[in-house]
Structures are given as C-alpha cells and as structure tokens.
Amino acid sequence: METCDIGVIGLAVMGQNLALNIERNGYRVAVYNRTAERTRQFLAEQASQKQIVGAETLAELAALLKRPRRVLMMVKAGNAVDQVIAELLPHLERGDILIDGGNSFYQDTERRSKELEAQGFLYLGMGISGGEEGALKGPSLMPSGHPAAYQALEGLLQAIAAKVDGEACVTYLGRGGGGHYVKMVHNGIEYADMQLIAETYDLLHRGLGLNAEQISRTFAAWNQEALNSYLIEITAHIFGVADPQSGAPLVEKILDVAEQKGTGKWTSEEALELGIPIPTLQAAVEARALSAQRATRLEVARTFGELSLAGAETAPLNVAALEQALYAAKVCSYAQGMSLLRQASKVYGYDFDLSEVARIWRGGCIIRARLLNDIRRAYQENPTLTNLILDPSFRQALTNAQTAWRQTIQHAIGKGIPVPALSASLAYFDSLRSERLPANLIQAQRDYFGAHTYQRIDQEGTFHTHWQANQS
Ligand code: 6PG
Which residues are catalytic, by number? Predict the structure, then answer.
C-alpha cells in the first residue's frame, strides 16, 4: 500500500501537470481530487501507463504514501487550503510534510506554518511560477518553511524545477511565509512587465501605426536583444495569431478589461505597509483596475470626443527608442521588486539572498528574462546594494537609455496615449536621482496646517513654525 513518494491534492491543470512532472522524474505519485470523477478521468487519460495512483478519499491517499508522508496541496488559495488541511490532518502523523503550492497570501502561510508546526507537522509554503507549461516541463519554485521539510524534498524539487545553465530554479527561502512573499513580489513584477509591454504595444500601434504583423516582428526582434524574456516572446507570438472567425489579429478582438486574482494588489499593499516605493508595480495594478471600468471609459470617451493634440508632440518617435524605453522601465520595475524584498527581508527576518532570488527567476517563471542574469550578478558582486540601479552596469544602461525613454513619454503625452507604467518608472528613476525633492514644501504645509513639525537641513532636531504669525 505505502508505495508512493508524494501525494498531490487538487487536479486542476497545475496539479495535474506537477503530478506528471514529478512522475517523469522517477517518483511514484498518489493523486486526489475533491470530485473523484476528475481523478478517474486524469488516470484514464494523461496519467495512463504512468506511475500515478488515484485515491478517492483523503484516508486512501494517506494510506498510499511512504512515511514520513509528503503531500502537495494544489488548491485555490484562501479558505480551500484551510479546509483541505483540516480534512487531511486526521489521516496524518507527526513528522509528515505538507506543502502548499498555491498562490497563498504569505501571512496565511505564516499562520499555517505556526499552527501545523505546533502540532508536530512540517509545513512548506511554496510559490510556483510558470503556468501550465512550467508546471509540466519545469517551473520556478519558491519554497519556505520548516528546514527539515525542505531537506526531505530538496532532491525532488531540484529534479522537477526548470534548469538554467545546469542549475535548478529552486532555493530555500527561509522559515515561515518567505516563499509566498517572493512569489507575491514576482507577481507584482509580472503585472508591471505585462503593463509596460501593453503600453509599448499601444505606442507601436497607435503611436507609430504598426500593424499586428509588424508588431509581432518588432517584439520578436527585441527578444533577441537585451529585452529577451518569456513575456516578450509570447507577445511576439500573440500578435501572429489570427481570429479564425474574421481572419483579423485575434488580440484585436479581445475585450480590453484586465482581470486579476489579487497577488498584484497584495504587492501594492505590502509596499505601502513597508513604505517601499514601487510606482511602476502600483501603476500596473491601477491600470488593470482602470481597464475594468469599461463603461465609464466609454462614457468619458464619448463625452470628450477627439481632442486636438496639434503641436503637443515634442519629439519624433521610432521603434529603437521604444525598445530602449521599455528596457529602462523594466529595469526600474525589477529594481522596485528587489527593494521591496530587501526591506521585507529585514523587517520579517526572512534573510533573503537576492542573488538567489534572481537566479531562480531566470528559468521556469513568468518573469524570466535575460535581465535576471545581470540582476543576479549585481547582487553577487554586492549583496548589500541599496538599489539595483546603483549597480555600475545598470547605471550605465539607464544612462544610455534615458534620452530615448524621455522622448517616448513626451511623444505618448503628445499623442494622448496613456503610459502610466512607463512614466512611473521614469519618475522613479528621476526621483531617486534627485538630490533634492520638493518634499520640503509638503513638510512645510503639514506643519502649517497641522503642526506636524519638520526637520532642517542645517541643524539637528525637530522644528515647528507658527507660519501665519510669521507672514511678512
Ligand atoms: C505564474 C503566474 C500565475 C498566475 C497569476 C495570474 O507565476 O505562473 O503568476 O501564478 O497566472 O497568478 O494572476 P492574475 O489572475 O492576478 O493576473
């Protein structure tokens, strides 16, 4: 009976593909799904002739597993995870290992780790990125939790993870919820990457008048250069796909309402909580929310009609400038994510090695990109780098790209094409470059209306001024 190396609970596509990936790597897998029909179907189709055994109850699943048992939960984040844990625990023993591979909120993982460790179970929260294909062929894995649980699973995780230059895209991310924290920030960067690419598409299309085929070729060409990444690659493919019904590019038939499951919003909330600026990532979340207000947008568009923008364009635009702008904006968005991780590492004691985070994001996951090789190198050379853009090679890259980046944004403004994420990145860059920001005025205003006090540049201490009394 106890013949399986691991159990997988939840046979939606991610669970199915991970089970197949684990089996392909030489492990015997037991699978369970709440609806038994799905288990039967999976066994009869994708899993037929494979070392995969079905269980119709959680008791059966537990009985199929070698001890200590290893159970990977691939269920929807939220209450479903707590429910599965509650139903499963009576069938487990102390020392058994539970892994949550969903997109759980890191604080839930912190709580579950504590609760389960107190009962003698070993818990791992594991971010998994790479979508369906990654799950099957090799995802990026972001595990954290009990060190003994990681040790017991390290071989398996190394085997199923994506490989880049012979290295597996998995690393231990400390105790508690660090793995889900890193996955959350990954998704914040994912939102920013996608929004930056979407804005650039808008500029290529509405700004430069390129058609879908030309846009596809442009992204494909950029994918050979510094922008080489999974999302640029799939974007080039997307623009090459025709709608079977009309023959027009399919992407042009898709409703312009971006949905979200919440991970981007969590990243924004976390950044606000820790006081770490991530304007490009925030802009991406807000741009999705704005896209969802479609009825309002249609009404405003009708009300305003075509605006005359004559003379508003200040500079010519070309594809090469857009490539540089997209690259520079992308560097700034990764810099923001890394800064958030750096602060979380301090505040929550996760002790992240940022070069390791960059390393495991190089393959398998959605934000994999050539850029991550440079990010990894930057943190290897200087683990305490205050901000990624201070690394000498990124400093040089941004210096080289900034003129084209500014031209792009001026052009977008002139044409009335919204570029919230491209411009948020530039404002981030320019703000960080500014030895002096106008925040002195904000402090003066706060002190004026609320006696909130201020500090001075030339003296230690806290000051308050009776501004009205001092009016000349
Ligand atoms: C990944 C993705 C994956 C999922 C997103 C989608 O890394 O493989 O991030 O986990 O596609 O969570 O999120 P939204 O529905 O919020 O876009």
Answer: 183, 190
